[in-house]
Design a protein that fits this description.
This protein has 5 helices and 9 strands. By secondary structure, it is an alpha+beta fold. It folds into 2 domains: 14-91, Translation initiation factor 3 (IF-3), N-terminal domain (Ubiquitin-like (UB roll), Roll), CATH 3.10.20.80; 100-182, Translation Initiation Factor IF3 (2-Layer Sandwich), CATH 3.30.110. The strands form 2 sheets. Strands 1-4-5-2-3 form a 5-stranded mixed sheet. It has a 4-stranded mixed sheet with strand order 6-7-9-8, with helices on one face. The protein is rod-shaped and about 80 Å long. The chain starts with a helix and ends in a 5-residue tail after the last strand.
Amino acid sequence: MGYQQQQQSKPQKSATSELKINREIQAKQVRLVGDNIENTNRIVSFFEALKMADVMGLDLVEISPTADPPVCKIVDYQKYLYQQKKKQKEIKAKSVKVVVKEIRFGPQTDDHDYNFKLKHAINFLNEGAKVKAFVFFRGRSIIYKEQGEILLLRFAQNLEEYAKVDQLPKLEGKRMIMFLSPKPKKK
């Protein structure tokens, strides 16, 4: 029984910890903004703002706690949360996700393997992914670095209509790396 009494006596917190609603707001005065207020951007006492929200059957939500005085809005809290989540979802959907696909060659890759990897690169570029093509030199094969560079430049030339070269072949340790990104599609 004692546990249940403790559980009931705790004040309810809002769904998101950063937003305070109604009686959670600690300020003596607040700046009211919103569509449903006749004089927007006016400073009133906290109790007057809370009374206005009660009369309208809505909640007083603190949207900018760091301002002096804090900025509050009279809205339906659940609807406000829903709209905020919807905005975040739209922003996330509009953000571009860059995918980088790797294609690995050896310094003496034969024509069949080369053509196979070329087709894969074309598919990756058509899907909108960037391509990181590299020649890996194993052991003493580093003496063929000119062949690796020629191979990567030929690869870039064959992909000329699908991609533009972001970085020309560059030797980094035992790898010679080149980056390609898809050309914008013409409508």
